[in-house]
Amino acid sequence: NAGTYTNTWTVTDDCGNTSDVFTQIITIEDTTAPTWTTAATALNVTLECSDTQGLANAQAALPIAADLCDTDVSNIIKVSGSFTASSGCGNAGTYTNTWTVTDDCGNTSDVFTQIITIEDTTAPTWTTAATALNVTLECSDTQGLANAQAALPIAADLCDTDVSNIIKVSGSFVPSQCINSGTYTNTWTVTDNCGNVSDIFTQVITIQDTTAPTWTTATDALNVTLQCSDDQGFNAAQNQAPVATDNCGGTLTYTKTSGTLQKGNCGSTGTYTNTWVAKDVCNNTSSIFTQIITIEDNAAPSWITVAGTLNVTLQCSDNIGLTAAQEQAPIANAKCTIVTYTKTSGQFVASQECSNAGTYTNTWIAKDDCGNATDIFTQVITIEDTTAPTWTTEIASLNKTVQCSDAAGLEAAQALFPAATDLCDTDMANIEKTCGQFVASEGCSNAGTYTNTWIVKDACGNTSET
């Protein structure tokens, strides 16, 4: 583009005389450097650190130059700058690229500078789905709770390859209407190298108590069979109560429904059916626990009257005493029902030696409403005859005084006979007479006495006075 033009002139006069040569030299030079037609900051760009395509495009960009004389200024030389990270963020920084261009005459342009600014303004995002760590557990599931508390969301960042610096804020347990249920709300955030903070990731661990209490008392452990008279045993059975346990603890509330006696086949027999339910603090209700108290009556009545107390020994003549003895009856006690008595009246059994003496043997059994019978109660009424016959003839009424010559009178006197009676023996004809010999008086042999004596025995051998 530089060089010279040399122009020469001569002049000839009319006579043909020619002048010396006049020389003109026009010097062409090129001292003007090319200039950039691309605006100074036109290639500057700010990109997200993740915008690899944008970075490639920016790096491929080229400024355009023009020269006043050189029509071909494509020999642009680029000096690519390395990435210079910012002090606070390793993913942000700048690339500074420069270009120069030289024309054919070696004139070099000013330096064209391109600044590619890389920034990181995008927060990490959670790859774990928003509710993926939420869980609902039974209050007793300690392992499940431990697993849930150990769970961790995963984050990703467009530029930061290490986003493990996740910060967890563990929420305390917030009970709901019942103390065993409620929630733990845990939150996480993660910050990339450039201080961009993610949205909050929230985990809600819901603790519920839907499990009813269970009975630790065995199903039939409180069942009992008692005699109807066993008041102490009955009170003890009624005061018993089953025990339940709950998987999550807390105070259990027991509700007892006391059953009334359901009558059995007899007397006071039957069953009481008591039921309980247990509720935990979350109102979960257990299954029904049932207690059956069976009341039975298989005990016989017992005799209150002491054995032998109705036995009596009476004279055979004591009809009032016999009637009274026959009207007596023993008393029995059945602790739960009324007593029904059955008497078997024994016939008079005479003794072998004495028909007026002997025994009446009466027996009783007592039954309650359930057919339980006592042992036999025996009454022995002993009839004896220990009373001798007595004379109905007055003591001196057979004494006679007769003349020694009065044979007929003596005979009549000797023929006299006293009469006897017995309380029980109606036949007093077996009177025995002992005839006395004539006993003369001292002063007169024709005078004296006959002393006759009589005794009588009843059928039982009781002998009268003489």
TrEMBL record:
**Which keywords has UniProt assigned to this entry?**
Signal
One of its Pfam families is LRR_adjacent
Please verify whether the record's keywords include Chloroplast.
no
> The Internalin Ig-like inter-repeat region domain covers which part of the protein?
88-123, 175-212, 346-388
UniProt entry tagged with the keyword Signal: yes
Q: Which organism is it from?
A: Flavobacterium saccharophilum
Q: Which InterPro entries match?
A: Cu-Rt/internalin_Ig-like (IPR014755), Inl_IR (IPR012569)
Could you tell me what this protein is called? LRR adjacent
